[in-house]
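Input/output pair, single chain:
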Amino acid sequence: MVTRISHSPAETQSIGEAWGREAQSGLVIGLCGELGAGKTQLVKGLAQGLGITARVQSPTFALVNIYAGGRLRLFHLDLYRLDTPEQVFAAGLQEYLEPEGVTVIEWAERLGKTRNPKSEIRRAEREGPRAEGGAEVWRPQWRRAQIEPGAPPSGGSTLNYLRGRWRWAEIEAVSETERRIIYEDFGD
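Output:
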């Protein structure tokens, strides 16, 4: 688990740009954070790092924005208007969870309702990865069960469907301009 402190929106964008430069096809990045935490700012940098010159905007009303023209295509999802994993599935968004390119998901915690990854990341930081409530407990849920493509999620969690390479990140506002970005990579 890595923690970075950003002191400005430009620095948050720079962190995203570095992620974009190193990204490989198939990567899915789940972003968690309150309104105004800097999720879209990070995605703008990610697009720059991929070589995408289009203007990046939050897809809150469209659910998905697709950006081409860079080294890899970028699929930008926003789950803010969806409340349950079943709604995510009904919207047909599961196809973006194994992308030919890079997918970034704002409000990624809405993929599953069994745990709150935000609190689990904080608990893991305090207690360490072997702790009962730490990251080692919630992370296996991402690969716990596989379902057939086109089948609805079982057990009330889209997390059961996910596989591949993931970066799970939480962005927390520390002050008006400062952000704490905590992230961890896992998967294949």
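Residues 113-161 have pLDDT under 50 and may be disordered. DSSP finds five helices and seven strands in the chain.
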